[in-house]
């Protein structure tokens, strides 16, 4: 959990610094920032944009690891002991590996090219009122046009996106596999005790919602980011929704557990009610003091 908290802090800082936009035009998708509006140097901005891309790859794995951990707990697996010895490093390195791969592919394969610059120059000026020369971006240009006006397949873009697909599909597979296994395991050990049966149902529904959340907020949007340019579906700045869903995911992910599990829900509501009561009492005391002075 501490590992996840540290990641979310780093991601939040990176998101505030970068505040990227995502854009799709025909066979191009791009994640970009406008350096003209920033006070830091272009090299620093480029670093933070790469870090932002890496954070997305990291998040794909770290939340999949959460599902794998839950599966091991329900299974009572001996692999849980690896969290208490030197093998814990593998739990840490796996998300880091995803993040590093995503960052390296973005910076070394899906880098900004003059051909892509010229292709999106007019639409960036039209839709964002920005000069393409002031923009830093990473992305793919699947079907660039040659000097004779013909389109050709850009192998570099396909290689980069294929690597991304491998990471996305592997993350989704882990989530679905562990989610289904957790469900079947919970049903197979369902106790006759009403108390424990209610708790197991709550855990199941929390797991169900937490399985849907990353699929809806991360896997589906990023899949659309890769698929739309392949079929030249020009959605323009509507692709920016992906940046919003990525930012929302860490905040929304804990909510099912907090509000579906009865004990957590009661504790949270009691805390909120206590804060409201204290606020009202403080306001009443302040009003009484004001009236007394008058």
TrEMBL record:
<keyword id="KW-1133">Transmembrane helix</keyword>
<feature type="transmembrane region" description="Helical">
    <location>
        <begin position="163"/>
        <end position="183"/>
    </location>
</feature>
<feature type="transmembrane region" description="Helical">
    <location>
        <begin position="203"/>
        <end position="229"/>
    </location>
</feature>
<dbReference type="GO" id="GO:0042048">
    <property type="term" value="P:olfactory behavior"/>
</dbReference>
<keyword id="KW-0472">Membrane</keyword>
<protein>
    <recommendedName>
        <fullName>Seven TM Receptor</fullName>
    </recommendedName>
</protein>
<feature type="transmembrane region" description="Helical">
    <location>
        <begin position="6"/>
        <end position="24"/>
    </location>
</feature>
<dbReference type="GO" id="GO:0038022">
    <property type="term" value="F:G protein-coupled olfactory receptor activity"/>
</dbReference>
<keyword id="KW-0812">Transmembrane</keyword>
<dbReference type="Pfam" id="PF10326">
    <property type="entry name" value="7TM_GPCR_Str"/>
</dbReference>
<feature type="transmembrane region" description="Helical">
    <location>
        <begin position="44"/>
        <end position="68"/>
    </location>
</feature>
<feature type="transmembrane region" description="Helical">
    <location>
        <begin position="241"/>
        <end position="261"/>
    </location>
</feature>
<dbReference type="InterPro" id="IPR019428">
    <property type="entry name" value="7TM_GPCR_serpentine_rcpt_Str"/>
</dbReference>
<dbReference type="GO" id="GO:0005886">
    <property type="term" value="C:plasma membrane"/>
</dbReference>
<feature type="transmembrane region" description="Helical">
    <location>
        <begin position="123"/>
        <end position="143"/>
    </location>
</feature>
<feature type="transmembrane region" description="Helical">
    <location>
        <begin position="88"/>
        <end position="111"/>
    </location>
</feature>
